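I am still getting used to backbone structure tokens and would like to learn alongside you. To get us started, please write out a protein record for me. Once you have written the record down, we can walk along the chain together.
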Amino acid sequence: MCIRDSFHSVLRSCSARRIVRMAGRKLMSDEPLVSIIIPCYKMGAYIGEALASVGRQTYAHWEIIAVDDCGPEDGTREAVEAFAARHSDHRVKLLLLAENKGVSGARNAGAAAAKGEFLAFLDSDDVWRANHLECHLSEHRSAETEIVSTSRAEFFFGDDPSIVSGEWGYSAWEKSIFPRSLALRNVIVPSTVILPAEQFQKVGGFDEDRAMTHTEDWDLWVRLVEHGMEFRFLEQFSVLYRRHEGGATADRVAMRRRVEAFASKNHVKLFADLGLSAWQLSTRVDALEARLNWLQRNPLIRLLSFFQGLIGRDKKDHTGGRRQN
């Protein structure tokens, strides 16, 4: 082959690749852009997995806004920059906050910098399955009005997302009475949620009051309901939710204070029907469970149970195991 033919062959090859890239960009531009908000604070060990799960998405029109909440040097910046280099056809932005604002402030800062029609939240220690964005966007396309979509989650402990410990989310009956079930408890993980960016801004985003930490998502769902947004519960398991032994949500005393801060906010529309009576009932159940656990551990109760068992066996021996009339 002569030099001229080789030159033209290379040109044709380059043109073909350029056409493919342009076609891909055109295809993506026809789909709504999803802005993925990732708050980062002391999660350098895990954020690489979270980012990699975004890179595997079957829905390709996304951008990432990762927000470093004035955390220590833990590899977060390097992980985001390396991911951005591998996905140069996507907008991957790292925001560096000058002061720690907490998870709510970090998410709000990310949402303010977002350019997408939809917002998707991904905590830096969680992982998405490859169909996460696609199944959500399919639900939004089929909806006649704007909605909040939330998919099902499985939870795991430690470093291996493939070892799933169980399911996380509302039961069937709780979904059937939603949003009243929000008065009982919140099990909607932010990493499972996608919603219109405009609606997020209209309700004011996440409450940045530090007293609301770890209940800020619960508070947002309530305000979205009050705003008239419909929640759609997807059947797909598309999120792997990492739980940490000894984490903040494992501290029952601290969580009680935070839940009380949440309950003290005046969510009249939600609580008017089921209301605080449901909250008080659930609190009473918690107290009864704690009392029962104490009784089961009490040495005196255990001793009485032992003697009761002996008496029962003695009666059985005297009656020959026959039922008394």
